[in-house]
Amino acid sequence: MAAQETLRLVTELDGETAIKLWLKGLGIESVVKTEVEERVVYWADGPGMILMAAEVSQRAREWMGATFGLPATLEIGFELDACRDRSSPRTTIIKGTLEFLKQTGADGGLWFDTNKTLVLIKRGGELTLDANDSVWTAARLNLIAEPYTQEALKAY
Q1: What is the span of the domain harbouring residue 99?
Q2: Domain assignment present for 14
């Protein structure tokens, strides 16, 4: 079964601009626009994954704001290939997410394991990593170039 990871953002960027900016660091520029049930979705192939970006519904935005203090406007989803090692694509997702948050100044949260694990959250310029998450290997911690704190993060 494919793993699904999700980055939720508070940003003025539209889905196409956001996914292109996220992919820019990987050297990927091809993005496809489709409509699914009146919802515009942008998608692209990445290394060991498929990426999709779409605006968040008003209902989801309100729930995210009340639950996490993060009224997300945009969601980038990552579907990892089922037959591959997931460590390398997850490291790519973390690296791309950290760079995207740095470049845009956006607030955002990154969930792994189909929304069961909140890996990191950035609000008001403050980055917090999940202290109880085995995701944070020494190599991944070395990707972080800004101050951060670690605490147990509640995923839902």
Answers
A1: 4-151
A2: yes
Nearest to 50 by CA among 68, 70, 34, 37: 34
Give the pLDDT score at 133: 65
The H or E element containing residue 144 is none
- The DSSP symbol for 12 reads S
Give the confidence band of 143 by pLDDT, cuts at 50, 70, 90: very high
Please provide residue 127's backbone torsions phi and psi, each rounded to the nearest 5 degrees.
Answer: -95, 130
Q: What's the alpha-carbon Rg for the chain, to the nearest Å?
A: 15
Nearest to 109 by CA among 121, 93, 101, 123: 121
108 within some domain: yes
- Rounded Cα distance, 23 and 41, in Å: 15
- DSSP conformational letter for 152: P
Number of domains in the chain: 1
Contact 144, 43 (CB under 8 A): no
**Alpha helices per DSSP H over the chain:** 15-24, 58-68, 87-104, 138-141
- The answer to the question of residue 156 being in a domain is no
User: Where do we find the tokens 């942008």?
Assistant: 42
pLDDT at 63 exceeding the cut of 90: yes
